[in-house]
Batch of 2 targets.
Target 1
Amino acid sequence: MITVILDQLRRRRGRALALAAGILVAATSFTLLTATVSTSQAATVGTVRDNARSAYDILVRPPDSQTDVERRSALVAPNFLSGTFGGITTEQYNRVRGMAGVDVAAPVANIGYLMVASTVTVDVSRFLDGHASRQILRISPTLTSGLGSYRTSDEYVYLTRSPLTSGSESDGLFESDTLEAGDADKNTEGYRINGKYDVCFYFNQDKTGGQQFGLNLPLKPNIIAEDLSDRSPFDPDLSSRMNCQSGRDKATIDIPVSYPVLLSAIDPVAEDRLVGLGSTIASGRMLSEQDKPREVSGAESIHGQRDIYIPALLSDNPLTTGTLDATVERLDVGDPAELPSKLGNPAAHSFVQSLRGTPVGTTRVDLSQGYRRALNVDSFDTGVYWTVGPVTYRPTPNGDLAAQPQPPQKPGLWITNSNKQPFGNVPEENHQGVQYREVTSHTSTDCIGLGTCDGVDSGRLPNPFVRLVGRYDTGQLPGFSPLSETPLETYQPPQVTGADSATRAKLYDKPLLPDRNLGGYISPPPTMLTTMDSITALTESRRVPSLQDKAPLSAIRIRVAGVTGVDTASRARVNAVAGKIRATYPLLQVDVTVGSSPALRTVVLADSAQVTERWVAKGVALRILRAVDTKSAVLFVLVLVVCALFLGQAALASVRSRRTEIGTLRCLGWSGGEVLRLVLGELVVIGLAAGAAGAVLAYVLGGALGQPDAGAKSLLVLPVALLLATAAGLIPAWLATRLGPMEAVRPPVTAARRARPVRSVAGLAALNLLRVRGRTLLGAAGLALGVAAFTVLLALTLAFRGEVAGSLLGSAVVAQARGADYLSVALSLVLGAAGAVDVLVISQRERAADLAVLRATGWTNRELAKLTLYEGIGLALLGGLSGAVAGLAGVLALGRGVLHGHLFTVTGAALLATLAATALVVAALAVPIRGLSRISAADLAAAD
């Protein structure tokens, strides 16, 4: 039998080589592709596991803190912490901290925003008139911050070459260092101190313009504050200042600015364990458990009274942004000699504002300059602080989110409690910018420095001062994977960028950062940190009690012990802790954040801007692992089926081409078993040869494609080739044994029932396809399988991406797995087309006599080529369209919304695959068509 097999292979070496080439391609492709899929799966799993862990595993928030958008989409909103002020009690925190399985429980208690006053210095020296003895410059700034521009108050600088001296009133109650000698005016000489005018007091301290008989208003410079109770805190004139300087060529203006600083309480030990806060200390020292509120005597206090101090850390980095662009004007002051008397009386303010100016240039200053100057201050007042609410969203018709604007801030938010005076230097964004958050003011009691409170403040505490123990640099925080980081809002503002070209242009291609608008879309994260023991000193020093008195905590971030990623054991540990918290406190909002990843969402803002920000998608890692397991299994099965059926088709075509030979052997007495062993033996020998060659080819290709363990995986080609060849040949070999001796030698063409006239080459091609239905269905089946597999693979790939996309981790995984997906899809189509071409080539050999008759009756080479080409196109369209329908039906049968959102894409791709398969068949037929044209009619007839 071995001799016969080898002799048969030698005699029919062309067909043997063709079948060996098919086995070689199928086995090598299957081995490399499954290795690629396995490698892709391993890389995906590795990526997920490496990026599944962030700073914390569980986020606990107050009741009703989860928004409708978060609930519907399984998301956690960015900047959520900035809108949460209280809701969790310290007793709840202590119980959660003591639960089994909790490694670290780090609380955050947002207290409120303090306004830190400072100045930014603008050098205007280059705009001076070098010849003037006295002059005034007006600076008209415009603040640009985020998406808005805001006109701010005018500022002035007065420069005189005369010296400015110090002096005091005769009673010693008032002292000034901006006194200048000048010509006395009889209408203003009564306002002089020691014969000199205070050229800055009236413009800066008393803008009322009160004259001699306004007995209820200050007349001469004095320590009595100007009564501003009838003024709006949003009046820009309140912040207008004049800098009075003496010199010749150097002048600066200090523009007053204020910065919102969110004060939050933390547990220093837990915070250091959770994120490594202790490693970020830039100066001073870290907070400790021993840092508590401390009462000092008047002698020890820097304010000269009995005060309470709380410890705090302040961030070195300004978390609000803005730029001041200013137009500088040189004012027409008239006679310079009269300036001291005109500036040193109650009419100074109206005089300066009435002056006409000539623009002399522009200047710019970064608003962060003032924050860095404020870092030199060691003590801050807590007389009033503000809290803000969350942003409200509504869905848009296209699936995005729209931030809902809030009413404008009321001026009463910026009125101090004690004397009803407006708060100074309110940031312009608060009354000119769009509001997205509700702002609430919390004014303190009026018993500061007294130790105890009585009267209207009875039972409350005097408000404390903040004493800094150190400063920290958020840039030194240990990094977490950007693919899975959950919000570290204690230290970082959310990442927001422009979603369209217009918004990006407004932002100058920079991120949108927090401004100083308390009601703005992005609130600055905590900038000042104190201890948990300091909470009571702050919250109970407010005149009106709030939720913070009883439940001051805003969030608890929990790291679970023994968690290493998203493996089964780790997920069980996290779920166990989360379940205990939910069972103990059903009203608290508990989010499992391990395995989460930032998810980009588009948000439409009120000023027609569109921004993209990172929300947090929960459970992304687990969804990815489940999806990649399912997809990999389906890819493996489909590729195996495509390769096996391709070889089965090739083996069946090979057996059909040997019908006459098999019939002759049966007539000579060969049994069915002997025929079976002959066919299978030939396939085994071919499979071994193809497998050996494929192992070498797989090794070379694996190395070129960067496959790990290319040598070990290439060794799999030989057994795979042998297995596929044997499995593919079973059915054809069995069919060969079913043929009777006389049946096998008859041509495999079904006789026509009645003659039909054929009037075109295309008609003859269609008739030929109908005459040999078995052969036609055989060729079409392979192509149909390829297109169907292509359709199913594409649908699964899109469904996989839809399942895991939408987050940064999912996008990374999709990009990583894209090569294996495309390779699988392409292979299924190529193998199907190759099978169809194989059947068409066999068909030509079977119909040699028919082609010889056509050539003898005058058919040209071009007409014979068209006949073969039309048959190929018909066969390809039949198989492709059938495969497209079968593929779509198979995808629909899978259910689970695989085609959701992709129906037209997959349908169009299936039709394109049909056209591509047709093109492949036509291109592949070029070789046999060209060979056919070189054979004479006698040779074709002899072949039969």
Target 2
Amino acid sequence: MAFLPICKEDMKKRGWDELDFVFVCGDAYVDHPSFGHAIISRIIEDYGFRIGIIPQPDWRDSKSITVLGRPRIAFLVSAGNLDSMVAHYTSFKKPRTQDYYSPGMKMGKRPNRATIVYCNLIRKEYGDIPIIIGGIEASLRRFAHYDYWSDKVRASILIDSSADLLIYGMGEKPLFEILPRLKKGENIKEIRDVQGTCYVAKDIQHLEGKDYIIIDSYEKVKEDKVAYARAFAIQYREQNPYTGKIIVQPHKNLYVVQNPPAKPLTVEEMDYVYSLPYERNYHPIYEKEGGIKALEEVKFSIVSHRGCFGGCNFCALHFHQGRIIQKRSHKSILEEVKKLTKFPDFKGYIHDVGGPTANFRNPACSLQLERGACKNRQCLFPQPCKNLEVDHSEYFELLEKIRKIKGVKKVFIRSGIRYDYLLLDKNYRKFLEKLCMHHISGQLKIAPEHISNNVLKYMGKPPKEVYEKFVKEYFETNKRLNKKQYIIPYLMSGHPGTKLEDAIELAVFLKRNGFVPEQVQDFYPTPGTVSTTMYYTELDPFTLEKVYVPKTLKEKMMQRALLHFHNPKNYDLVYEALKIAKREDLIGYGKDHLIPPKPKDGGNKSVSKDNRRKKNSAGNKK
């Protein structure tokens, strides 16, 4: 095993004077299967092609894109594991100070809108050479999309990047079809029929006789929010690899064409992907700069499956990994764990075994394997589907097998569980007991996101009563086991549909339960989600009903401040929010008050004794 070439000297060591592909990536080079560039490049290598990587080229100098020479077949371009704009800015559009995917967490190693910038550099140096783009940044921008950072609708990234092909989703399945065809001499510019890909066409005569839908043009959706919402609804409903139609969106005198999503990987294909000869480390060139922080959490974690049928409206997984679960075999996972135990820095702890949702290990129902996920309904929301198959036995059997491997001390679950799904299992108390006994490091991460049923409705999350039931069961289980373990709930402020009174309801809930949240984020409108469409259009894309959206910076700051009402720095914002909402009943010194009165009202601005709480992520009442 060896790292793939990143310079001409590396090519010479392999006896290569030319590469077939050059992969340009916005992340540092980490040869680990949790990093998209590693998986894609190792597959291409395994198919017999010569490939090298240019990680984080200097976008100020187009010559940085030439360090490996002109590839024989094509350039591959990805912004990295994260959208470059999300990597650079907070939800309040403030610049971040650290980049976990760059050496030493230094900022400035990649440009804004990295995919477009890299493609433009390639075009400047190599003209009409074929370019394939992929990764989450490209995947979620394949159609005309709302761009939060510029507050406008942008064209498909295929137009702005001038790329020849866009592989959306996880990418492996399209590659399994594309690579053999390239070996036979086909031109990338002529490959237009692969599921999981998009391309630009001058006309759509070649689609005659095929099942396709034309949605409103870029020009139309840019000016008309109703048209935008309708176009998004069609895109969303056609994300089915078995029944989805080809979607066409005009862009001036061109057409962006999306083929239906790629079919899910089989167990054998998933096993193949994770069996490739990864170095499982960052490239040695980063050692002197402090390494790559993003590797730390995943180095001793296991991806057991992909996909999520949870249907959260703010999550882009529907548009990227899809709703159909794709899993690895027990044998494949156990072999990977055994490899990890041989690493000199392995301390006996597997940090995680899971996927987007840890306990979604199997498809929601057997029908999905034949027809895909349902077009007009979710598996869990607003009520669990009658066809939902709930059984955690296979997942916990896997965890038990891992625990028995020599050298493994503990197996944690950190990718989070869907507590509503767990409670649907007829044996949920049995599995909750196993979870608490063996797989929690003192704190369990779950994501209720909010506590107002009005907000949860817009999020696509279960009602607060389900969360309260789980919390009760969780603490009762810990009590039976004589354990003192806690819950860390992820919470979100400012989501579409959230009014000030909803934010206050959440603050009151936190006060009554004596909980000071640590995991809090403001809603971040990223391309490809239902919630972002609601944010931009102020409409539900499926019903076209009006949705209230907190858009002003002041209101978003007030909603965020209410989550930490106990913090003296938030006093003025919380006070103003309570006044606006006419909830002065929550101002005072009693145990049910959020903040004390202002000095002019006979109080002082410091937080009352009752409201002062030691910051403790595990401050839940049992």
